[in-house]
């Protein structure tokens, strides 16, 4: 039962992150402003690029862990799970290393969502003190896509932290975090 | 022979346990210092300069341009998040000895996760706005701000770096707590 819950949670988190990355990556709009062709694309803003890259990476890492059984002794599986990190004086066990990796991925996911949220707020409201005008009224389709991707990103963060709690509280079941 | 080896092993485990207790305290004090420094430096971040904007007849008309952290919601959130994190660290350090260690460690661990997420979002938000202020965005016609307000940007960068150090320390604290909970670990907890 717990195995099923863990697998479903992992799949849901990976799917949400993948959806966020894909929706953000397909957001672009071209309009005509003052006679010039102006393009809005996620690639023009480093924060949105970070969002796409971070969500894609975390989604791939989580899905890989779904497919690779945790107790597999083969070298390829161990490399994939990255458990052969030595040189730390406390000699952490496999569970702890996987947990550490899970934590880092969770923090990265949170950071991507936060930075994309900051840029979106700027695009919607602008900043009069810096002379930055809002752009959402000019490119509404782009803004809607970014909004949807952001929602998916925050859902992914929530699911990922649920997954993390599951791994901490029931470590034997969720060995392959 | 075996008994002596057993005693030596127990001694080593006890030393490790003491080291870990002090390691967690040291990490928490360091995180407290880092987040407090970030909040304070960003909270006192303000710069103004006067420039001549027009000349009426022979008299130049000057205007003062001021920028402060309150103008940007991202920086306001950054200061608030760091202040909450430093207050939480202070509270945990102060009440560590008063509560029962068993019940305390789970609550502290969960709250640690929440505060880590809060701090990570605050730092990431401020970092993305700082990057925009430094490089601008040509496509959205957003001009960079740092060439006019150099000192503001420098202080902001210091605060940001301090906050990222705080995030790393909180992550290390979280990992130690989580490692202490796993059943096959040889890492002992608080």
From TrEMBL, chain A:
The chain crosses the membrane at residues 44-68, 98-119, 148-170. GO terms for cellular component: plasma membrane. Keywords: Cell membrane, Membrane, Transmembrane, Transmembrane helix. It is found in: Cell membrane. Pfam families: CASP_dom (PF04535). It is a multi-pass membrane protein. Residues 3-159 form the Casparian strip membrane protein domain. Homodimer and heterodimers. Belongs to the Casparian strip membrane proteins (CASP) family. This is CASP-like protein. It comes from Zizania palustris. The lineage of its organism: Eukaryota, Viridiplantae, Streptophyta, Embryophyta, Tracheophyta.
UniProtKB/TrEMBL annotation, chain B:
This is CASP-like protein. Keywords: Cell membrane, Membrane, Transmembrane, Transmembrane helix. It comes from Zizania palustris. Homodimer and heterodimers. Residues 19-168 form the Casparian strip membrane protein domain. Belongs to the Casparian strip membrane proteins (CASP) family. It is found in: Cell membrane. InterPro entries: CASP/CASPL, CASP_dom, CASPL. It is a multi-pass membrane protein. The chain crosses the membrane at residues 20-42, 74-94, 106-129, 149-176. It comes from the Eukaryota. GO terms for cellular component: plasma membrane.
């Amino acid at each position: 039962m717990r195995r099923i819950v863990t697998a479903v949670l992992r799949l849901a988190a990976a799917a949400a992150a993948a959806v966020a990355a894909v929706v953000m990556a397909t957001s672009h709009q071209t309009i005509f402003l003052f006679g010039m062709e102006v393009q809005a694309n996620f690639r023009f803003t480093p924060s949105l690029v970070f969002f796409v890259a971070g969500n894609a990476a975390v989604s791939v890492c989580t899905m890989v862990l779904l497919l690779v059984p945790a107790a597999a002794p083969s070298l390829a599986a161990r490399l994939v799970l990255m458990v052969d990190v030595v040189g730390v004086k406390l000699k952490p066990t496999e569970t702890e290393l996987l947990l550490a990796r899970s934590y880092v991925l969770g923090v990265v996911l949170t950071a991507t969502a936060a930075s994309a949220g900051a840029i979106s707020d700027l695009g919607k409201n602008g900043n009069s003190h810096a002379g930055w005008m809002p752009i959402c009224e000019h490119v509404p389709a782009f803004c809607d896509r970014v909004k949807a991707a952001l929602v998916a990103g925050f859902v992914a963060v929530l699911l990922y932290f649920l997954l993390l709690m599951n791994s901490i509280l029931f470590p034997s079941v969720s060995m392959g975090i | 022979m075996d008994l002596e080896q057993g005693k030596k092993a127990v001694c080593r485990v006890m030393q490790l346990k003491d080291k870990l207790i002090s390691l967690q305290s040291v990490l928490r004090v360091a995180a407290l210092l880092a987040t407090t420094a970030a909040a304070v430096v960003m909270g006192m971040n303000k710069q103004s300069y006067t420039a001549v904007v027009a000349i009426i007849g022979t008299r130049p008309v000057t205007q003062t341009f001021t920028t402060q952290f309150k103008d940007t919601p991202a920086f306001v959130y950054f200061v608030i998040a760091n202040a909450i994190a430093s207050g939480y660290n202070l509270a945990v350090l102060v009440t560590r000895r008063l509560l029962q260690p068993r019940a305390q460690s789970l609550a502290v661990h969960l709250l640690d996760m929440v505060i880590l997420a809060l701090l990570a979002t605050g730092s990431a938000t401020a970092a993305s706005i700082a990057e925009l202020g430094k490089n601008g965005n040509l496509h959205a016609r957003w001009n960079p701000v740092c060439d006019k307000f150099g000192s503001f940007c420098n202080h902001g960068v210091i605060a940001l770096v301090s906050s990222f150090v705080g995030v790393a320390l909180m992550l290390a604290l979280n990992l130690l707590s989580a490692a202490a909970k796993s059943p096959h670990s040889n890492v002992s907890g608080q």
